[in-house]
Amino acid sequence: NNNNSNNLTATQSPSRHCHLHLIVVIILACCTRWLYGLPDGRATCRSVPGLTKDQVELCYKASDVTAAALEGLDMAIRECQIQFQWHRWNCSSLSTKSRNPHASNLLKKGYRESAFAFAISAAGVAHSVARACSQGRLMSCGCDPTINRKTLNKNLRQSLDKEKKQFLQYLETNQILTPEEEKTYERSKIASRWKWGGCSHNMDFGVEYSKLFLDCREKAGDIQSKINLHNNHAGRMAVSNNMEFRCKCHGMSGSCQLKTCWKSAPDFHIVGKVLKHQFRKAILVDQSNLGNGEPIVVLKRSRNKKSNGGNSAGSSTDMAGADASATLTGSGSQSDLDAEQGARQPKADKNAARMARKLETSLFYYQRSPNFCERDLSADIQGTIGRKCNRNSTTSDSCASLCCGRGHSQVKERRAERCRCKFQWCCSVECDECHVEEWISVCN
Predict the structure, then answer these.
(1) Which regions span the lipid bilayer (predicted)?
(2) What's 398's DSSP letter?
(3) Strand partners, 195
């Protein structure tokens, strides 16, 4: 009996060790995830209501990338609030607990404010994912793969060797260079002074994931979906078209004998400014062909008195910019038109290409915006009651503009500020907390 019990214990011992080992591995994995801030896939996906089925599936497949995308949406909302803080619409409806601005009813409308919201959301996702790739936070991507590290190191060595040989040759000959020869030598040094290096932000991956994560929401095929897709694309273009060129110096005592350079996504505040400029110049889209064919972009009618007013094509162009000039030429014989066509063709092609590029980065909307003065919860419009305003201003932050003629009241505001800050060796800054009272203007 003792032998049987010993054998049974011996056979159960390895299985117990396996179970204990598995439990330890699970605990270590959880601790590692907690320590390094790695996102729990299903928890991340469940924390954001309002995602479509395709978005949830994509989130389960790439939870770490989706977490970076959600950070981009948060960044986009903050930047939106900065850009519109003194406007009647101040993006407050997009700041939801769900971290999903697309859950707002305002984005179901066709206002130019909705166009800005779609564009800056797509830009935020692309920007955040591209930056996370370069920081090594994601398993799906890394630095920009277009730069070959082995080739990079080889080029750096060749550049250093070339400069070293030129310098030694100059010392050996000990000749005095003429001013022109010295300029040529300096130009040759500067030309080979910087090389690709560092870790360029992977903007291609960021743009592609932004497409996968956001464009999958637009499947209806109607004018609203097409315009939302266009505004998403315009937002991503605002990021990729403004990539920055950054460098780091190398050499003795920071002499910058050689610079390592890489491409970086722009500061997102720059993207916000670009999209705010596009917001002001947003283009109205005709919805008379709702659900039929491509939407029609409504451009300003030409002032040419000879233009044919009976043809509606004179004031419109399609989304692809096929009729980029959006005007008709004056009346005349067919032979005259054929004779002039060859001379005008290169210029017309350039104008058409320029108009197509302009349309690609423009924001589209198809509904006139309300005044955003009164509260309308069905459209996620908060109104301007209780908003702070500037009674001495005449611009958009003025009480006359923000309060919509309802008047304003003076209210005493009390807030805490850091004051009497002192530097403590070493190395911290200690401040007192001061309470400041001031009178502010608030809309009635």
Answers:
(1) 20-36
(2) B
(3) 260
Q: How many CA within 13 A on the CB side of residue 58?
A: 20
Contact 359, 237 (CB under 8 A): no
Query: One-letter amino acid identity for 278?
Result: Q
Q: What is the pLDDT of residue 16?
A: 56
**Average pLDDT for 379-387:** 89
Q: Is the peptide bond before 91 cis (omega within 30 degrees of 0)?
A: no
What is the pTM for the complete model shown? 0.69
Q: What is the DSSP string of 286-316?
A: E-TTTTSSS-EEE-PPP--TTS-TT-GGGGE
Contact 118, 364 (CB under 8 A): no
The first and second tokens of residue 117, run together, are: 């919201």
Please give the domain boundaries of the chain with CATH numbers for all domains: 43-144+199-282 (no CATH), 149-196 (no CATH), 389-443 (3.30.2460.20)
Residue ranges of the alpha helices (H) in 84-178? 112-134, 149-173
Element (H, E) at 316: strand 316-318
Judged by DSSP in three states, 244 sits in: strand
Q: Evaluate whether 166 touches 185 at the Cβ level (below 8 Å).
A: yes
DSSP states of 41-92: HHHHHHTSTT--HHHHHHHHH-HHHHHHHHHHHHHHHHHHHHHTTTSS--SG
Q: Are 130 and 202 in contact (CB under 8 A)?
A: yes
Q: From CA 371, how far away is CA 111, in angstroms rounded? A: 11
Tell me which long-range contacts 244-251 makes (C-beta under 8 A, separation of at least 24): 246/198, 247/194, 248/197, 248/198
Strands (E), 164-298: 194-196, 244-250, 258-264, 283-286, 296-298
Q: Enter the tokens of residue 102.
A: 């697309």
Q: What is the distance, to the nearest Å, from the Cα of residue 412 to the centroid of all Cα atoms in its chain? A: 38
Residue type, 407: G
Per-residue pLDDT reduced to its tens digit, 117-176 = 999 999 999 999 998 888 888 877 877 665 544 443 455 445 445 544 554 455 455 555
Q: Which residues contact 65 (CB under 8 A, 6 or more apart)?
A: 129, 132, 138, 140, 141, 209
Cβ–Cβ under 8 Å, residues 298 and 284: yes
